[in-house]
Amino acid sequence: MSKNCLIETGNILSLNELKKKTGLSTRDELIETLKIVLQDSPSNESSLPTTNGIGEGDSENVDRKELKITVKIFISTAKAEVLKQALDEVFRILHTDTIESLVIAYKSTDDSGDILTSLQSLWSVIEELKKSGKLCSVGLSDVDTEVFIQFFRAANVKPNIIQINLASCCVVPPALQEFSKENDIQLLTHNDPCQILPKESVMEIFGNSANLHWVARYQIHLRCRGVLSSKGYLVYLDKPT
Fold this sequence. Notes:
Elements: E1 2-10, H1 16-19, H2 26-40, E2 50-54, E3 67-75, H3 80-94, E4 99-106, H4 115-131, E5 135-141, H5 145-154, E6 161-165, H6 174-182, E7 186-190, H7 199-206, E8 211-222, E9 227-240
């Protein structure tokens, strides 16, 4: 028997234990955060058990127009319904109808699939939300240049962000630079692992039979000052009861 669980960290900028651990990678930051939150906040027994972290801090009482919300979703399945569920939870927990910037980091655990077809399946969810005005800027992370160009040309709603990890690609591919410039695409670098929470970490924290579905990271900036006021993670998985 297993049950689905949603871990909501709340605003990790207020976690004193985390502040003491400087220079953490994205993966280590998430792992340490989960250990702190799970220790302090046991989950309830609702139909979708949710472990809630701490409050949202400075952005809680600010006019929504003064906030910029950026979200990155790490997902390992090409099922559109799973991505839709992830986005629904982000909208619900952040109490917002719009996301200013969304990036999808897709890394399949099964290398036999067609990456282009998988991305197109996920993108159907993005296109629907973009057309309804719920998403502003949208993009992908760590996609091979040729795959990204094919994807861009076929998409009805074009991505206007592409992220690349300089740890695995020390120089930005010239073809990607040129294509991004020609099509007004933001070319951004990052240092996130595509699989932000590896299987061994999931097993260590949640048990041997736990299965991770997706992770969403959000950041909320105050537009007027460019200050990061809130940052947190949502982690959705099933684990043995």
